[in-house]
Design goal:
Blueprint lengths: L2 H13 L6 E5 L3 H15 L4 E5 L2 H10 L14 E4 L3 E2 L5 E2 L6 H9 L4 E6 L12 E5 L4 H14 L6 E3 L1 E2 L2 E2 L7 E5 L7 H9 L4 E4 L1 E2 L3 E8 L2 E6 L3
Parallel strand pairs: 1-2, 1-3, 3-6, 6-14
Antiparallel strand pairs: 4-5, 5-13, 7-11, 7-12, 8-11, 9-10, 14-15
Length: 232
C-alpha cells in the first residue's frame, strides 16, 4: 500500500463518522483532498452536507466536485471538522500548516463540535517537532517578530533555524495575506509552553500547534486504518 492508498483508507474511515445533514468543516492538504473526493461521490448520490472550507484550494476542489459550500459566517457553528495533520502525537496534539492554511484551519476547528484528524502513519510521532512548526506572522514588523520568536525559543531551550517560507521567487502569502516562518526546532518537549509564548507575541497571527482540539485521529498504515482517541 503506497502513501496515497493509505490516505484514501483514512479518508474512507473518516467518512463513516459523517451523517447526512451535517455542517462540516473541510480541511486542507493531500489527505483532506482524498476525503473531499469520497464525500463528493456520496453527495452525488443524494447525501446532504454543507461544508465550510479551510482554504481557497479546498473551496476550489469542492466546487469542482459538487460539494455544497457555505461561509463560516453563514454556518458559524459546525458539527465536525475533518482535516489532515503534518504530525500527530499520542495525546492527539498536532502540528498543522504545511499547506499554509493553519489560521483558517484553527478557526474552523474551534467552531466545530469536534475535530477528526486523518493521516497516514508516517505522521504519527512520539514528540512533536520533527516537522518544522509553521508560524503565521503579519508582514508588518517581520524582523521584530522573528527576533521575538528567537527569544521565546531560547527561553524554552529550543534550537534550530527559522526560515521565511517562499513560493517560487516570492515570499509565501497565506489566504489571509500573511507570511509563514517555519521553525525547525527538531523536538518540542513542552508544546503547551511554546503555544502560550508564541500567542503572546503581537506579530504572530497564529501558529501550527493544535492542542486539545482533536477528539479522534484515524491513522492509516499498510494493514488498514486504526482510530486513536484523545484522553482528556
Amino acid at each position: 500500500m503506497d502513501a496515497r492508498e493509505m490516505k484514501i483508507k483514512a479518508a474512507e474511515a473518516a467518512l463513516t463518522h459523517v451523517e447526512s445533514g451535517m455542517r462540516l468543516g473541510i480541511g486542507t492538504g493531500s489527505t483532506a483532498e482524498e476525503f473531499v473526493r469520497l464525500l463528493a461521490e456520496k453527495v452525488a448520490g443524494g447525501f446532504k452536507v454543507e461544508g465550510v472550507p479551510t482554504s481557497e484550494r479546498t473551496a476550489r476542489l469542492c466546487v469542482e466536485l459538487g460539494v455544497p459550500l457555505k461561509s463560516l459566517d453563514e454556518l458559524p457553528e459546525l458539527d465536525m471538522t475533518i482535516d489532515g495533520a503534518d504530525e500527530v502525537d499520542g495525546a492527539l496534539r498536532l502540528i498543522k500548516g504545511g499547506g499554509g492554511a493553519l489560521l483558517r484551519e484553527k478557526i474552523v476547528a474551534a467552531a466545530s463540535g469536534r475535530m477528526l484528524v486523518i493521516a497516514d502513519e508516517s505522521k504519527l510521532v512520539e514528540t512533536l517537532g520533527r516537522f518544522p512548526l509553521p508560524i503565521e506572522v503579519n508582514p508588518f514588523g517581520l524582523v521584530s517578530t522573528r527576533m521575538a520568536i528567537e527569544k521565546v525559543a531560547s527561553r524554552l531551550g529550543l534550537t534550530g533555524g527559522l526560515t521565511l517560507r517562499r513560493s517560487g521567487e516570492d515570499d509565501f502569502m497565506t489566504d489571509g495575506g500573511h507570511h509563514i516562518i517555519d521553525a525547525s526546532f527538531g523536538r518540542i518537549p513542552d508544546a503547551e509552553a511554546l503555544s502560550s509564548e508564541l500567542n503572546s507575541i503581537p506579530g504572530v497571527v497564529e501558529h501550527g500547534l493544535f492542542l486539545n482540539m482533536a477528539a479522534l485521529a484515524i491513522i492509516a498504515g499498510p494493514s488498514g486504518a486504526r482510530t486513536l482517541q484523545a484522553n482528556r
